[in-house]
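Severity: low
Component: inverse-folding endpoint
Summary: output formatting inconsistent between runs
Steps to reproduce: submit the following structure tokens with default settings.
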């Protein structure tokens, strides 16, 4: 459910016409809806009712300070994977004490930063990392909390690049190996064992892989209890999918219920943490782009727009489908029965492509659209892993980002300037 809707055949974000934003801010431009963002966070939060829980938004999905700040105001915690993400959380007014530090390659300086900031917990992914954190903590006198990320060897049934819970993935540790690490950690006075962590992948559209992973994680928790290690937190990661096309992912409620069904009957109520990213922010954003050229090729028709793979890399990188819609449908033909072909524009099948010099630079293939040069298009579900994964490839400034709030909107990141693209670069004497 989101707040991007047509009113009189013109697409609005809440009460603001997207064409007005394009007019004032230019294109390409990411537009987010505050009401949608907040609704999604609250849906996760309320799914757990009064069971002890914390929602730690995965900053990697979209780390814009305005987004982090809105979530912090709702009481969100955060999941970060770098010192840069931690800095964003702090700058945005988020609470480091409700922030979890994940990631397979935490560097010494990042560990020091996180200790100084006082993060809630380090999610450890290797034996070497445990030793490093322990050594650095020993120098500083802090006694950080740690969880070990177990890899439950469950097929998340998602794109291989975003599947993380299989034995062959670099993430986490097998339960056997993890058990060894907990035994070591239990002897280590520099750290405190806090929890168990698990994350099996992203864009999951079924509950069953989650259920399997949860069963394995809880089995592991019981194994720990048998050797006298009682944990105070189960961090179940993120991964709940969203609808890009025709998927029917479980709702936040169904997902929460699945966790509660397993957690509630246990004799000891283990507080649960989840780290949703995509499910909070994906449908809360669109990428607004303008058609510059229509080109009729021999094999395909191209709709050439000013947003490219550097702005939204998901279609190029994962062959991901993202819906592309016309912002203004007032001149478009109705379905055939109502059509007045002499008045309305015809629809055509296009490959929607960007300005980048790569054949992988497409936002969508074989899309039926009514478009002419200068029209606006919106790429839906672009709030997650859009701006966050954007680059300056082809020396293209990153797009502006805008937050809509009711009938108002605010630029939350201006379009990059050309000068900023080579800031810090040095010519030899
Ligand atoms: N926690 C951990 C440890 C993660 O690795 C991730 C995502 C999340 C939470 C958040 O997962 P989410 O709720 O957003 O699915 N760039 C890819 C997605 C990569 C996800 C990486 N890890 C994409 O655009 O589909």
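Observed output (run 2 of 3):
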């Amino acid at each position: 459910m989101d707040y991007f809707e047509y009113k009189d055949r013109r697409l609005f974000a809440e009460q603001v016409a997207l064409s007005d934003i394009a007019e004032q801010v230019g294109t390409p431009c990411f537009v987010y809806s505050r009401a949608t963002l907040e609704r999604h966070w609250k849906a996760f939060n309320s799914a757990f009712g009064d069971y002890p829980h914390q929602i730690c938004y995965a900053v990697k999905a979209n780390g814009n300070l305005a987004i982090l700040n809105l979530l912090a105001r709702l009481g969100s915690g955060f999941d970060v994977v770098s010192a840069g993400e931690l800095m964003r959380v702090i700058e945005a007014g988020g609470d480091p004490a409700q922030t979890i530090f994940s990631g397979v390659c935490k560097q010494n300086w990042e560990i020091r930063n996180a200790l100084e900031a006082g993060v809630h917990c380090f999610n450890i992914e290797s034996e070497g990392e445990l030793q490093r954190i322990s050594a650095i903590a020993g120098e500083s006198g802090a006694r950080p909390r740690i969880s070990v990320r177990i890899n439950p060897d469950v097929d998340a049934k998602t794109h291989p690049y975003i599947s993380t819970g299989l034995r062959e993935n670099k993430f986490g540790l097998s339960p056997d190996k993890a058990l060894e690490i907990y035994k070591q950690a239990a002897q280590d006075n520099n750290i405190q064992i806090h929890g168990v962590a698990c994350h099996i992948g992203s864009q999951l559209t079924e509950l069953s892989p989650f259920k399997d992973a949860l069963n394995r994680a809880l089995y592991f928790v019981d194994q720990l209890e048998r050797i006298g290690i009682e944990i105070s937190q189960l961090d179940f990661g993120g991964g709940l999918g969203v609808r890009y096309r025709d998927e029917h992912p479980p709702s936040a409620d169904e997902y929460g219920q699945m966790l509660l069904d397993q957690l509630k009957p246990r004799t000891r109520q283990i507080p649960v943490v989840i780290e949703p990213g995509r499910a909070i922010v994906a449908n809360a954003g669109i990428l607004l782009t303008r058609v510059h050229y229509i080109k009729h090729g021999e094999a395909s028709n191209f709709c050439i727009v000013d947003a490219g793979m550097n702005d939204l890399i998901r279609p190029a990188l994962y062959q991901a489908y993202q819906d592309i819609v016309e912002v203004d449908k007032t001149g478009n033909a109705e379905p055939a029965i109502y059509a007045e072909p002499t008045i309305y524009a015809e629809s055509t099948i296009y490959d929607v492509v960007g300005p980048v010099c790569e054949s992988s630079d497409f936002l969508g293939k074989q899309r039926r659209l009514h478009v002419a040069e200068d029209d606006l298009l919106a790429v839906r579900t672009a709030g997650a892993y859009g701006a966050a994964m954007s680059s300056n490839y082809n020396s293209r400034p990153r797009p502006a980002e805008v937050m809509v709030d009711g009938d108002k909107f605010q630029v939350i990141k201006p379009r990059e300037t050309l000068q900023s693209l080579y800031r810090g670069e040095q010519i030899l004497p």
